Every structure is written in C-alpha cells, then in structure tokens.
C-alpha cells in the first residue's frame, strides 16, 4: 500500500467512524483539535487502525503526534516495519 492509499484510507476511517467533516482533515491540521477525541475515542482509533492496516499502535506512538501528517507517518512507519 502506497502513501496516498494509506492517507486516503485513514481519512475515510476518520470520516466514517468519527463523523469528522473531511474539510477539517489536512496534513498540517492538529489531529487532537480537529477530531476532538476523548480517551475512549483514541482506543477506538487504535483498534480500527489495527484491523484495517494490521499494525498495532501503542500509547507512546502518540507522543509526537500533533498533526494529521504525524499520524499518517506513524501508520506508514509501522506498515513499513511490518512488511
């Protein structure tokens, strides 16, 4: 799966599962502020990413995540390591 496909799939998940307006999703936008997720939503996000991409995210993966691009990068890195 290439970068564009990863980004597109993540965006689709956010729109479908978390009812996010796709207009607020951009690489430089703040993930936390744009999504307004609580701690249970983050757990849901981790489970959904794992089931869709086959990679496991842990709490420390989110330490440096500020923007959507940061989140895309984490998922992409995990997929690269997996493959």
TrEMBL record:
The keyword Phosphoprotein appears for this protein: yes
Sequence ranges assigned to domain Carrier in this UniProt record: 4-79
Coiled-coil zones: none
Cellular component annotations (GO), alphabetically ordered: cytoplasm
A Gene Ontology molecular function term of the record: acyl carrier activity
Keyword entries, A-Z: Cytoplasm, Fatty acid biosynthesis, Fatty acid metabolism, Lipid biosynthesis, Lipid metabolism, Phosphopantetheine, Phosphoprotein
UniProt pathway: Lipid metabolism; fatty acid biosynthesis
Function: Carrier of the growing fatty acid chain in fatty acid biosynthesis.
Family to which the UniProt record says this protein belongs: Belongs to the acyl carrier protein (ACP) family.
Protein name: Acyl carrier protein
Taxonomic lineage: Bacteria, Pseudomonadati, Bacteroidota, Sphingobacteriia, Sphingobacteriales
Gene (UniProt): acpP
């Amino acid at each position: 799966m290439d970068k564009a496909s990863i980004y597109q799939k993540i965006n689709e998940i956010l729109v479908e599962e978390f009812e996010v307006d796709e207009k607020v999703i951009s690489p430089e936008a703040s993930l936390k502020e744009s999504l307004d997720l609580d701690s249970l939503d983050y757990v849901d996000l981790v489970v959904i990413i794992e089931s869709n991409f086959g990679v496991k995210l842990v709490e420390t993966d989110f330490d440096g995540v500020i923007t959507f691009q940061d989140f895309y990068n984490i998922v992409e890195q995990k997929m690269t390591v997996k493959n």
